[in-house]
Amino acid sequence: MTTLHMSQTYETENGLVHMTRPDMAVLATAGLRERTRILEQYVREELGRILGIEPHLVDTTGRPMGCLGIGSISGIELQYRMEATLGVDVNLQRLLLANSAQELIDCLAGQLGPEAHLHGAAVPA
Amino acid sequence: MTTTALLPAARPVVNHQGLDRPDFTLSADRVDLWLIRRPTGADADALAVGELDAEERKRADAFIRRSDGMLYAAAHVAVRRLLGRYTATLPQDVRFMREPCPGCGEAHGRPALSPPPPPLHYSLSHSGGVAMVGVGTVPLGVDVEKLPGAETVDICSKALHPDEQIEIAEAGTGDARRHLFGQIWTRKEAFLKGLGTGLSRSPAEDYLGTDLDRHPEGWTMVGVPADTTHAAAVAVKGQAPKVVNVRWVPDTWLAAGNTVCGAAAPGPNDTVLAS
């Protein structure tokens, strides 16, 4: 089995952005609010990398994924990156059709917390 | 006893240079493909966005990158003007619907004209500054993609059919690999759009690699010459068309104020490939 190289930095017009992998141990025990905060930062970084903009400039609430610039190829890349980093299954069609990045963040937060282990993933792939 | 030799299905001839002026007729032997470049400068200012409906304008304004919104708007102006010419309808009066999804029956299958004007079928795709519209008499799908970087190719290849993954792995590194990925991916997405499933059908399920004889039965996939930074393809259902005509739409043809309906109205001339 080959291991994919996934760069953890990307360029913007304002300089290099260093991405931070979420701490899975923290995610597994954090409350929903903290988990959502960590995942929002992570999703901002992944979307920022695709868009070539800084994470804080990514609009997570007001635009569907297509309007963020996520097409089929970048959607699959995002799916595989999130699956590799977070160890969860991500449904490609739901990712592409999400009404906002926040929808995606909320899905991931539901899948990754202690509640998910008790009750099953909130948003199965 | 007689034997019948099975002849390989004829491949369409792809014309993209020196084409006659388009007549906007439909033929079972022909598929028309129209490439659109994102307008810039004065062409962007002149774009006939007033012909878009409220939903299309809202969507065009919602793109986080203004350039993406401009391409979306240009692509949809082009769809309305092109389909308007084929059906003798004013662009702003062209209406759209979704066919039933072949998977679940819900109304999110292939886009189509409403009410359906048989036998016209169309498909639209846009990516990275270029859009493509396909028009024919049978169900079809088109896809155009900006060629992704090497790391994206490595990651996204894992989503493909196992034999496609092998072909890409054997393509070496650099541009050859990116181009092969682009060719396979656009054939695949064009096929899935033609089916009406889109990516709800796994990209790993069907083989659209370099061996054309192994492509899904009942469909013809054709690579489309776009420009040096994009790959493009069309998938056509049923018997292969004899001809695929590929033209670039001049930016000026998408400007407000142009008369685009009626037999005497101006249309895109035969155009040349991008440099």
Number of domains of chain B: 1
CATH C-level of chain B: Alpha Beta
Question: CATH superfamily of chain A, called what?
Answer: ACP-like
Shape of chain B: globular
The helix fraction of chain A, in percent, is 40-55%
Element order of chain B: H for helix, E for strand: EEHHHEEEEEHHHEEE
**Mean of all residue-level pLDDT scores of chain A:** 86
- Beta-strand content estimate of chain A: 5-15%
* CATH arch. level architecture of chain B: Alpha-Beta Complex
Main-sheet strand order of chain A equals 1-2
* Rg of chain B, alpha carbons: 19 Å
Biggest interchain interface, per-side counts: A-B, 26 and 24 residues
Structure description:
The complex is a heterodimer of chains A (125) and B (275). Chain A is mostly helical and 125 residues long. Chain A has a single domain (9-119), classed as Non-ribosomal Peptide Synthetase Peptidyl Carrier Protein, Chain A (Orthogonal Bundle), CATH 1.10.1200.10. Chain A has helices spanning 24-29, 32-51, 72-86, 92-97, 101-112, 114-119, and strands at 9-12, 15-18. In chain A, a hairpin with a 2-residue loop joins strand 1 (9-12) and strand 2. The model of chain A is unreliable at 118-125 (pLDDT under 50). Chain B has a single domain, classed as 4'-phosphopantetheinyl transferase domain (Ribosomal Protein L22, Chain A), CATH 3.90.470. Chain B has 6 helices and 10 strands; from the N terminus they run E-E-H-H-H-E-E-E-E-E-H-H-H-E-E-E. In chain B, strands 1-10-2-6-5 form a 5-stranded mixed beta sheet, covered by helices on one side. Chains A and B meet through helix 3 and helix 4 of A and helix 4 of B.
